[in-house]
Amino acid sequence: MLACMIHDLGAFYMLYRAAQYDELRHRPDTIKHLIIHWHESIGVSLLNALGLPEEIIHATEDHDRKTILWNPPRTLADIVHIANMLAGSNSAWLHQGRTAHDHAKAQAVAAFEHLIPEIDALAEKMRNDLT
Known about the structure:
Strand content: under 5%
Helix content: 55-70%
Shape: globular
């Protein structure tokens, strides 16, 4: 669960840093480009600096670029990738023009959509438990 929650840490860090530079705040396309191409490697660097276990760090590498979908998942990286696809991310701009991503997302949804009601129920339970 931790790996899935932090897999895009690099993107959030980059947004934080970009907000500190006035010239970047006025150039959102530049920020998008930088995040698309650098968020995974920046995230890996941050997770290494934080001293997270190698298994978690490795699971976040290339989470947006996988093309093989194992069913059932074989590794933690597979789980992060599938969760990323099923989450229905609101950051579609990250994947504009990336047909491999569209194909991987369609594969993940087709293979694992039967789990979505159970995932939603567990997420709701967790929200209720935390409030």
